Amino acid sequence: MGAPPWAIWALLLLHQAARVLANTEGDALHSLRTNLNDPNNVLQSWDPTLVNPCTWFHVTCNNDNSVIRVDLGNAALFGTLVPQLGQLKNLQYLELYSNNISGTIPSELGNLTNLISLDLYLNNFTGPIPDSLGNLLKLRFLDLSNNKLSGEVPSTGSFSLFTPISFGNNPALCGPGTSKPCPGAPPFSPPPPYNPPTPEQSPGSSSSSTGAIAGGVAAGAALLFAIPAIGFAYWSRRKPREHFFDVPAEEDPEVHLGQLKRFSLRELQVATDTFSNKNILGRGGFGKVYKGRLTDGTLVAVKRLKEERTPGGELQFQTEVEMISMAVHRNLLRLRGFCMTPTERLLVYPYMANGSVASRLRERGPAEPPLDWQTRRRIALGSARGLSYLHDHCDPKIIHRDVKAANILLDEDFEAVVGDFGLAKLMDYKDTHVTTAVRGTIGHIAPEYLSTGKSSEKTDVFGYGITLLELITGQRAFDLARLANDDDVMLLDWVKGLLKERRLEMLVDPDLQTNYIDVEVESLIQVALLCTQGSPTERPKMLEVVRMLEGDGLAERWDEWQKVEVSRQEVELGPHRNSEWIVDSTDNLHAVELSGPR
């Protein structure tokens, strides 16, 4: 039996209302585009022939295809705003900071009753601040500083919430919230403390006149997208030179992609103290990593990617980020969120309390104990499990392409967490060549990847083998300092040279002293050498590496490798040299010369 006629009519009306809303909002945004000069073509996707603006870059919509966010900060735009912006009834975030936009602030912005953040910092706006902005009762972030505004700051409505920093560096502006009173006005007192309204005090319906159905939709949206106000305690910890404070973290489902959150640039600027050098955790081929603290106190690591912006790359970037976020395993660093603006790409991860394996091996402070042997064994197994998951359980599989001790992080329990996976693909999405540029670190790059530029899971296996040697020796994969002792600068060659001389004890990190188990060291070296064979087809898969580390199959694989090495040396050096390669039959590392042809 079909749906009752009233239900069909209701659906048709709702669909028509959504279509009209999309058309209205699209027209409003297109009017903005025509009024702005866009030298970098960041608005090229704002196509007026498309009914729904939700497909445009820098525009975010909710599940009802209504625009809730416009992100155009730091986009080199100039021109003026348009009154049609007041038609974006559900807009929550209007981010236009660090442009060259001029003219007056349209009074129609006061119609945006759902607005939470209005950021016009560092533009060339002139004229007064419209009184109508005082109607924005949900506004929790306002930055009109560094403009050319004049007149008096309105003293009504939501303006009492904001500190002088919101209006700073507007020399002709006076009144409450600024550093100077208006001529003839009595000295003003500080604004009263703000008390967030109770849920009963919050508006429960829209003032729209589109009818009962549209009103119901608006009321539901207001309830769904309402977020609590935050206090200003965090402000007291801020430096005076900063020109903003944080926007509350959004809890709205439309700005999450599954478990992935889209952060605003402002949130991450605040969290990292404007990407202060004192908060740098590390630098790498993909960019710098900063320690940050969100408004709820959560510590995060913010990776600021250093890549060239390419027109139209936003959608591909977001797609690749979503793919990375789907790789979830206890030994993989979970991607918490991202930020994308016309000029910035940032990734947000949980903060790892114990840094990286590389830092704990070679950069630890005097009060930090060295990694003990059992912890190193656990790191070896955990990182192998993480890489195996990328290769064998992700579809499509993820090739890391830069496996090294610096990319193995340690949580509060010193469990290994593989980081930076997927970033090579993320950074290469703009490449049009069949073979992408080689990415990696000297000493960790597999020979076939270096010569052809083509990566596979076996290039990761090679990098993992070098990482094992780092764990065992505490040495860098490439270290010119070893030249002082006439040693090889490549860690792999140095290890093979010591093994040839039967100096196993020289391989072990001096920080371990004698607190390690010989047979376990030999086992890890065996796995490392199997992983770093010259031919990628002869290297084990990461799944096999995990099994060998768990005690299954290493002896057989090592024995097979020894036989192959013996045959190879017989062919290359002749039978009379065999005694130099096989000393005894104990099947341990002392029995085999391992340098081989390279």
Folded structure, characterized:
The chain is built from 13 helices and 20 strands. The protein folds into 3 domains: 174 residues, Alpha-Beta Horseshoe (Leucine-rich repeat, LRR (right-handed beta-alpha superhelix)); 108 residues, Phosphorylase Kinase, domain 1, CATH 3.30.200.20; 239 residues, Orthogonal Bundle (Transferase(Phosphotransferase), domain 1), CATH 1.10.510.10. Strand 2 and strand 3 form a beta hairpin. Strands 12-13-17-18-16-15-14 form a 7-stranded mixed beta sheet, sandwiched between helices. A 6-stranded mixed beta sheet has the order 1-4-6-8-10-11. A 5-stranded mixed beta sheet has the order 2-3-5-7-9, with no helix packed on it.
Compact summary:
This protein has 598 residues and is of the alpha/beta class. Helices cover 29% and strands 13% of the residues.
